[in-house]
């Protein structure tokens, strides 16, 4: 179980405290070295030391709202009562009958510590901490998806892979639409005009809920995506 507590707000969105399970491999992937062999022992030891130091700084929270799918084409998704999302969203969410619109964050403690390291001239430690923060934010998304499986999906239902503005052909500007539908300020997240979120280690996105068999048959879009050099490619 990756959720510590849950609460509901007036507009029906749910707030969850998430438990993050951070893997060394994911941190190395963020640093661009997961597939390089062998990984130097001093790199592994630095990552391991900073992961231990960073763990108490991770305060993962999420907010989400679930809406029924009104229409879904190859270029647009409309959820009931919401402004439309633009982009090739169906590639990820096709079998979904409902969609969870979410934002998760791990707070700003890691990025503040990384800035401190940088200002003191410790650029390697700063870079590594940023990678740990990014991997922790992704792990928070995984925890939220697991929460959707256990608390929101009904019998025979499953949850699709999550999908974020700025990835896989979905314009980053779609963050604006997402922030019109939910209120991430409830977990301390705001959106800048540049489309960056504050705290920086936050992730917004969509995850579909629908028939588990159809989701399995739909598969992983990365398997038939022709973008060869994608660091976010998912293998299962
Ligand atoms: S390979 Fe990359 S761009 Fe293509 S679907 Fe997967 S994550 Fe998206």
Notes on the structure:
The protein is an alpha+beta fold and 236 residues long. It has a single domain, classed as NADH Oxidase (3-Layer(aba) Sandwich), CATH 3.40.109.40. The protein is 34% helix and 24% strand. It is built from 7 helices and 10 strands. The strands form 2 sheets. Strands 1, 2, 3, 4, 5, 6, 7 and 10 form an 8-stranded antiparallel beta sheet that branches. Strand 4 and strand 5 form a beta hairpin. Helix 1 packs across helix 5 and helix 4 runs antiparallel to helix 5. The longest helix has 29 residues. The chain is globular and about 50 Å long. The structure holds iron/sulfur cluster. Iron/sulfur cluster binds next to loops. The site of iron/sulfur cluster has 10 residues, from loops.
CATH class: Alpha Beta
Tell me the domain tally. 1
CATH architecture: 3-Layer(aba) Sandwich
What is the N-to-C succession of helices and strands? EEHHEEEHEHHEHEEEH
Rg from alpha-carbon coordinates? 18 Å
Ligand kinds? iron/sulfur cluster
The portion of residues forming beta strands comes to 15-25%
Instruction: Count every helix, treating DSSP H or I runs of 4 or more residues as helices.
Output: 7
- Shape field: globular
What are the segments in which pLDDT stays under 50 over at least 5 consecutive residues? none
Reported by name, the CATH topology is NADH Oxidase
User: What is the CA–CA distance across the termini?
Assistant: 21 Å
- Look at the helices and sheets and give the structural class: alpha+beta
- Secondary structure: helix percent: 25-40%
What composes the largest sheet?
A: 8 strands, antiparallel
What is the averaged pLDDT score? 91
Number-wise, the strands total: 10
């Amino acid at each position: 179980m990756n959720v510590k507590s849950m609460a509901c707000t007036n507009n029906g969105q749910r707030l969850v405290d998430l438990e993050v399970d951070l893997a060394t491999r994911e941190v190395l992937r963020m640093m661009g070295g997961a597939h390089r062999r062998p990984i130097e022992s001093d790199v592994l030891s630095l990552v391991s030391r900073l992961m231990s130091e960073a763990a108490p700084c991770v305060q993962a929270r999420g907010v989400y709202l679930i809406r029924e799918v009104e229409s879904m084409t190859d270029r647009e998704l409309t959820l009931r009562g919401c402004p439309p999302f633009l982009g090739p969203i169906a590639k990820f969410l096709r079998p979904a009958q409902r969609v969870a619109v979410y934002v998760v964050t791990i707070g700003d403690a890691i990025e503040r510590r990384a800035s401190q390291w940088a200002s003191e001239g410790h650029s390697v430690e700063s870079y590594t901490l940023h990678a740990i923060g990014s991997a922790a934010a992704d792990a928070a998304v995984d925890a939220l998806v697991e929460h959707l499986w256990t608390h929101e999906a009904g019998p025979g239902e499953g949850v699709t892979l999550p999908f974020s503005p700025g990835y896989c052909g979905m314009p980053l500007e779609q963050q604006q639409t997402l922030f019109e539908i939910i209120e991430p300020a409830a977990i301390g997240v705001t959106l800048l005009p540049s489309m960056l979120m504050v705290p920086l280690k936050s992730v917004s996105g969509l995850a579909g809920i629908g028939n588990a068999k159809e989701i399995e048959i739909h598969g992983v879009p990365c398997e038939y995506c022709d973008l060869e050099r994608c660091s976010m490619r998912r293998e299962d």
